[in-house]
Every structure is written in C-alpha cells, then in structure tokens.
Design goal:
Strand content: 15-25%
Radius of gyration: 17 Å
Helix content: 25-40%
CATH superfamily: P-loop containing nucleotide triphosphate hydrolases
Number of domains: 1
Oligomer: single chain
Largest sheet: 7 strands, mixed
Number of helices: 5
Distance between the termini: 32 Å
Order of helices and strands: HEHEHEEEEEEHHEEE
CATH architecture: 3-Layer(aba) Sandwich
Number of strands: 11
CATH topology: Rossmann fold
Strand order of the largest sheet: 2-7-1-8-9-10-11
CATH class: Alpha Beta
Length: 218
Amino acid sequence: MNPSFRPSPGSALRELARRIRRLPPSCGPVRLVGVDGHAGSGKSTFTAELAAGLGGAPVLRLDDIASHGELFDWTGRLLEQVIEPLSQGRTAHYAPYDWRTRRFGPPRPLPPAPAVLLEGVGAGRRVLRPRLALLLWMELPCEEAWARGRARDGEEQRDFWDGWIPAERRHFAGDPSRPFADLLVRQRKEGYEVLSGPAGTVGPDQSVTHGDGPPAVC
C-alpha cells in the first residue's frame, strides 16, 4: 500500500460492507457480524454507520439482552431468543431490557436478514464465535474508552460505571474477544480505519492495513 494514500472518509465502511456481503452465512441464512470492544469505545456509532452501509441491516444491541442483574450472564437468553431462531431461518423475538425501569419490555422481532449486526461488550465471547461470520473489535484502550463512557453518561450513571468496570475486567479476563477478532476498527477524525486483527481470517483477496500490536492489557 502506498504510505501516502489516505482513503476518503467512509471508504473503509463501504469496503467492509462489500466484504461482509461476500462472506458465507454463519447462522442459518444469516451473516452474523459481531462488534465488540470496551464500553465507551464507539461500538454503537460505528455499528449504526455499518448497518446503513449494508442497506439497513438489523442491529441487535447486547444492552437490550443484558440487565442490571445479569451484566454478562445473558448467554442462555440470547441463544434461546435470537441465535436458535435465526439459525433455523426464522424471525427471532427478543424482549429488550429497559435500563431505567429495570424490566424487560414486549418482544421485538429480528428477521433473518442477509446480514445481522450483534453489537456490544461480549459480542465475541467464545460461545458465540462459532456463529459469527466476522468479529470486529473497536481498537481503543480500556481506560480511554471508559473515560469516554463516563463523560457521555454523566454523574447520573456514576454508580453504574463504578460497578461496570470491574465486571468488564472480569469478563474479558476470563473470556477475551480481541485475540479472536478478524478485524480491528479505529475511529479517526474523519471516518474509520480497518486493520487486520489477531485472528487474521479476512481472506487472501482482502487488502486491509496490518495492526501494530495489542493495546495495553486492562
């Protein structure tokens, strides 16, 4: 790659969307794409833009599956409500959690579209990886991501973050996602940069930038 070349804003997303469309289905007829990373790393914003680049691909936010009482112990609910129906080519129905009222709401449909994006901390956990067509990791160090998240949520969510951070540390210590990421995503001032990930399974015809090593361990 020419070191002086700078892709135009949005070109990395367009190329990534093209690659996803070419992947074989991984969960029944669905190409299930995981977007993982530390809380506050920009997953939701990136996923929304990628979904638009995929023509309005459905997005399942793991914030809708988790709850105050089960920050990370939601695997069974996700498999039952979402993964199994999609793997059979059926529309899934999941009950999104309301973090303000602390209760699950009425079921919401999730169709078996050609591509479905699974976004949230833990999207690349080991039990889900066999169902993923691609695993993306938002490449932002944990401390920086958490600082961004705290600033975004304000003083009102201070107690939540005080509990979340040690829970996230424990989760990734026992079930890390980044070592298995196919691609790393870095946010730039304009657009995103997509780098080859530790798993290195993006295919021989996919020219992505190579990463420069792992970030500091949290």
